[in-house]
């Protein structure tokens, strides 16, 4: 039987949280110790019982367990309630389809169409079009650009959302994208588009909150997430000023905001 690892520290995990389903070691078992999406439900049960602790319905992993379903408040987003990362994936995908369908554009001719000009980030026009600090996140320059960003988002977005909740996740995503746009506008006059800056913020926040989480670098090399973040940061820093058509300063700006957000969240939970 494959040994399971704690989602926080990568030690052997013998338990699963009854509120969010994460596999955890004993030290990170309480909901407040692993950024549990069911933390508020846990606190409500504490208050209802009038005790300092709630006996969690947890069993050793080798014997199986039952996971309590989290309670989500109904929102206008319907099936996306509590899954805003998937809502963002859906909206970005719709935007990419529009790029393909509207005549002209970066995808088909290398010349932006009206839709792309309206939404992409042009540093020379950012004061006149401040909305582009957000809307540029929803555009991509090619199918490869779109696919890689969404694959990255699919791996890490839902994980962070589960850890900190949907509202904080949305805030970090958009603020990371905005800071990425600002950083790019201060260092370049070329238009930019793509979700990479926002995703850098998501990745950095997750690395601060769960530094021991193991991921596979290039799908092959097992590494702790903080190590991969350092490699990404070094690469972007070294490549600043290159002619590779990648917004490295946008990546770094989003990354630095993500580090700040992660440290703020960590301090607030201490």
Give a brief rundown of this model.
With 270 residues, this protein is mainly alpha-helical.
Question: Could you describe the 3D structure shown?
Answer:
With 270 residues, the protein is mainly alpha-helical. 49% of the residues lie in helices and 4% in strands. The chain contains nine helices and four strands, in the order E-E-H-H-H-H-H-H-H-E-E-H-H. The chain has helices spanning 39-49, 84-101, 114-119, 132-135, 143-164, 166-187, 196-209, 225-238, 248-269; strands at residues 15-16, 23-24, 214-217, 221-224. Strand 1 (15-16) and strand 2 form a beta hairpin. Helix 5 (143-164) packs parallel to helix 7 and helix 7 packs parallel to helix 9. The two termini are 36 Å apart.
Characteristics of this structure?
9 helices; mainly alpha; 4% strand; 270 residues; elongated; Rhomboid-like fold; 2 domains; two-stranded antiparallel sheet
What do we call the CATH homologous superfamily of the largest domain? Rhomboid-like
Which architecture of the largest domain does the CATH hierarchy give at level 2? Up-down Bundle
N/C terminus separation: 36 Å
Total domains: 2
CATH class division of the largest domain: Mainly Alpha
Helix content: 40-55%
pLDDT < 50 stretches? 52-75
- Mean pLDDT equals 83
Radius of gyration: 20 Å
In DSSP terms, counting alpha (H) and pi (I) runs of 4 or more, how many helices? 9
Q: What does the main sheet amount to?
A: 2 strands, antiparallel
Q: Please report which band the strand proportion falls in: under 5%, 5-15%, 15-25%, 25-35%, 35-45% or over 45%.
A: under 5%
CATH fold naming of the largest domain:
Rhomboid-like fold
Counting DSSP E segments of at least 2 residues, the number of strands comes to: 4
Record the strand order, biggest sheet. 1-2
């Amino acid at each position: 039987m494959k040994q399971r690892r704690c989602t926080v520290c990568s030690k052997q995990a013998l338990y699963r949280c009854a509120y969010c389903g994460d596999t955890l070691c004993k030290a990170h078992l309480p909901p407040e110790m692993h950024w549990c999406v069911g933390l508020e439900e846990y606190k409500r049960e504490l208050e209802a019982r009038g005790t300092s602790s709630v006996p969690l319905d947890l069993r050793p992993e080798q014997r199986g367990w039952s996971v309590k379903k989290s309670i989500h408040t109904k929102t206008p987003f319907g099936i996306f309630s509590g899954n805003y990362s998937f809502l963002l994936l859906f909206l970005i995908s719709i935007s990419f389809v529009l790029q393909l369908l509207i005549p002209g554009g970066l995808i088909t001719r290398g010349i932006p169409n009206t839709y792309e000009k309206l939404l992409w980030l042009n540093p020379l026009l950012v004061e006149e079009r401040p909305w582009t600090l957000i809307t540029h996140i929803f555009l991509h320059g090619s199918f490869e650009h779109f696919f890689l960003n969404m694959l990255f988002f699919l791996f890490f977005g839902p994980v962070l959302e589960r850890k900190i909740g949907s509202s904080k996740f949305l805030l970090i995503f958009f603020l990371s994208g905005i800071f990425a746009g600002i950083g790019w506008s201060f260092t370049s006059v070329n238009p930019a588009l793509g979700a990479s800056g926002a995703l850098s913020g998501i990745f950095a926040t997750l690395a601060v909150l769960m530094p021991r989480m193991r991921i596979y670098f290039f799908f092959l090399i097992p590494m702790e997430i903080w190590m991969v973040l350092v490699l990404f940061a070094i690469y972007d820093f070294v490549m600043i000023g290159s002619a590779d058509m990648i917004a490295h300063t946008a990546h770094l700006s989003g990354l630095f905001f993500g580090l700040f957000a992660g440290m703020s969240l960590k301090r607030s939970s201490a």
